[in-house]
Amino acid sequence: MTTRLQHPILHGPAGALEGALHEREAGAHGIAALVLHPHPMYGGTLHNKVVHRAASTLHDLGAEVLRINFRGVGKSEGVFDDGDGELEDARAALGWLRQRYPGSRVWLAGFSFGSWIAARLTAVEPDLERVILIAPPVTRMGFDVLETSRLPKLVIQGTADTICLPADLERAYPRWAEPKQLQWIADASHFFDRQLTTLGDVLARTLSPLTSGNAA
Predict the structure, then answer these.
(1) CATH number at residue 9
(2) What is the CB neighbour count within 10 angstroms for residue 104?
(3) pTM of the predicted model over 0.90
(4) Which helix (H) or strand (E) is 71 found in, with range?
(5) Which runs of E-coded beta strand occur in 62-213?
(6) Cβ atoms 59, 22 nearer than 8 A
(7) pLDDT over 90 for what percent of the chain?
């Protein structure tokens, strides 16, 4: 099936939002996924290699996948807003996906700062089907919402991450509500240097059984 990469400009709450869309040109659009990038103040963009690998893997699994630049990044208008504005940017992107692919199952993924935004979205976007959190910064940002969120959660963490320490996740994760699944990638750093293929393999192996029908 023919696929294409498009670069839409979305209407966001602070102005234009730059996007990158992995889309099939024909066929049923069963899953629509949004993938969110790491911290804008530390160089995070939609072109981040972890974000790109997650997006391409989800697309290979059958999803139509959107990445956006948060406000103030790349061609996106506005300025950094400590997470509150970025949450609204992501909500606007989800609305865009729903309008483009009505009736599709909606998945959400985020890396580092993006995983914090994704976690917070689980409290305000009730029709999400699942959330994927890659290297969540559980001590730097609040993930308490996951203690009551019944949304299926896939968490992926490198054992050699020196920015989001594995020990911190080990303390936080048991408090998060089921259903949930934690996948460790041995010797992987925060940015999964030389481990991007493994990251993609873990995503594909874990999620491929859920990409047909209405699995949850």
Answers:
(1) 3.40.50.1820
(2) 18
(3) yes
(4) none
(5) 63-68, 105-111, 128-134, 153-158, 180-185
(6) yes
(7) 92
